Amino acid sequence: MMPEYEIRNAAEAILRSSSSHQQIQTPDISHSHSINTIPSIRTEYVISEDLLGGQRIDGKMSSIRRFFCLFVTFDLAFTTLMWIICITLSGKDLTVAIENQIIRYNIHSSLFDVVMVALCRFLVLLLFYGFFYINHWVIISVSTFATCAFLITKVFFYTWTNSSQPVFEVLLILTSFVISWGETWFFDFRVIPQELNAQRLFVSGPETERTPLIRNYLQNLPSMYTESVGNFYSPLGSPEGSLHGVEGLGRYPVIKLSQEKEEEYKSKGAELLRDVWKLCNCTEWKLEKETDNKDCLYSMNFCGRKIFKLSAIIDIPPRCLLEELYYKVESIPKWNPSLLESHKVQSFDEYTDISYQVSTDSGGVVASRDFVTLRHWGIIDETYVIAYDNTEHQSVPKNEKYIRGENGIGCWIMKPINGDPSKCHFLWVLNTNLKGWIPKVILDTVLPKVMLDYIKDLRRHVTKLNESGRIT
């Protein structure tokens, strides 16, 4: 019988030759899809200037967005220049004309309000798209709508019969109208698509059967993400014959989502990661209880309800605990008796998925609930963070058997302990709305008990993993 390493080498050779043959015979990038059904752009086929223009290099602004910001600046400068030309050609002394236009402003005779509209548009667009770097069209659509509404109103209120240079004044209003629409078109049809395509190419990268499970995608996210060897995470090896890695496949129908919808889920996940990190580290948490094991339970008021945070030390490396909580979601009910079901509904990449869970009833006090949750994980300051929030998915409509609860933004955090790599500092933020009519006093009693029971079950599970040698 051939040794195992020779069989593996032979298989690698067959795969390499098969891959080379497929690249020669099928160079059509429109049919390049990964095993995870996420379309990808093959870098060996095409890297255009448009894709490069949408890329953020070292966290800096992309060139296409920088051009948009320059265009907005040009809008203000051009409108101001046109206004100065109009008042200069009126034949009045420049000082007197400016005084009449600004100090003695009147909508019937002054055009300075057109300049002020351009200034407001300039400040709003640069604030949201230049400083906050948002990727949604809603802000520019509102600014364009407000500009058009004002300019149309201005046309009816302005006294054109008293104008000495009506052509230039009409041109001022028309150019402001056209440029505002040009900004909207450019952002929606050029900036957003190019940055999304660049993100898919340079951040997500092509996903194939040979792609490592997790890549260092964090290099182009905000600087709060750690760029270290910790990002090159590889899940623990499964025992021979294990189905881990494909568990849950086929349980729910795979819904083919649009590229924009998938990117929306991924972007929401990355934003969620930042939000839960701030929430977990805020100073408003108050200590509620400390157990004999030094587990600490905290609480705070958040968005009109009481949320909880549990802090504990677990005898498991943080990377291994991430594996148990995120990638082995189907196995959680085996060691967590508070869950009846736990399934992965759909994955969007290695870091983002949607899961479905059903809780058990709490001693007849709180009936079973089911939850549909968006999950996303990443590394912040060498700490593994799994963020989650409520979402919806077509594959899991509401079930008449259960009340559909909502998980607000929450997280599991696994922080390494200096000097002891076999342990981690575990934090759990629970922010849930169980729906239905449940007295607040019952919720404030049941939820802390559920969290403390959970940490006991988790410790028992970790003990079994350590005894079986499945944690290294």
Automatic annotation (TrEMBL):
Domain of life: Eukaryota
Ranges where the START domain occurs: 285-467
Membrane topology listed for this record: Multi-pass membrane protein
GO molecular function: lipid binding
Transmembrane segments: 67-90, 110-131, 138-160
Record bears the keyword Ion transport: no
Main localization category: membrane
Compartment annotation: Membrane
Residues of the MENTAL domain: 61-234
GO CC list: endoplasmic reticulum membrane; endoplasmic reticulum-endosome membrane contact site; late endosome membrane; lysosomal membrane
Alphabetically ordered keywords of this record: Membrane, Transmembrane, Transmembrane helix
GO biological process, one term: vesicle tethering to endoplasmic reticulum
Name of the molecule in the record: Steroidogenic acute regulatory protein-like
UniProt organism field: Agrilus planipennis (Emerald ash borer)
Gene name for this UniProt entry: LOC108738694
